[in-house]
Amino acid sequence: MIRSRFGTWRGLVRLALSYPQLAFGLSASRIPDPAQVRRLVFVCQGNVCRSAFAEAVARKAGLRTASFGLSTTTGRPAHEPAVAAARALGHDLSGHRALDLADYRPESGDLLLAMEVRQLHRLAADPALRSLPRLLLGRWARPVLPHLHDPYGLDDRYMVTCLRRIEGAVERLVSAFPGARLS
Fold first, then answer.
1. Which helix (H) or strand (E) holds 11?
2. Complete domains list, the chain, with CATH
3. Can you tell me which residues form the catalytic site (predicted)?
4. Which residues of the chain have pLDDT under 50?
5. Which of 118, 112, 180, 110 is nearest to 148 (CA)?
């Protein structure tokens, strides 16, 4: 049950610790003016599973979107188990190529959406990004999940669980940020 729902015990513990961080304002979130958001930018560690999938879901929903990883190699393809799980959910990651933080170019109206509290802290510490609004994607999951544990290299069942959670959260973003719509 732990492996399929949380990935690992560490994933469960990090999720449990993330709730008080979110509740007490310790998540390094920077709330945007929804009317100013023009593009949703998804962020994770490697940009080969979570943020890549979130970008694909957002693009399919007709949103302006991008994604990058905090520690990856630009040009790296999506993780094969993520490609397979995404395909089973009706999304295509086969053409995705990772983008490293160093190669990301912020645009006016960007909203950064991270998968973990520690990623928000990293974004807040970056001089080039600290002024951008940033939130946890898991705020739109149901139930709220302030930690979407990295499925890379974990149980295939957790990969599907994680991507389903991301899919639901992204689908809820559509109405929250209408300025990010392509048309």
1. helix 9-23
2. 2-180 (3.40.50.2300)
3. 44, 50, 150
4. none
5. 118
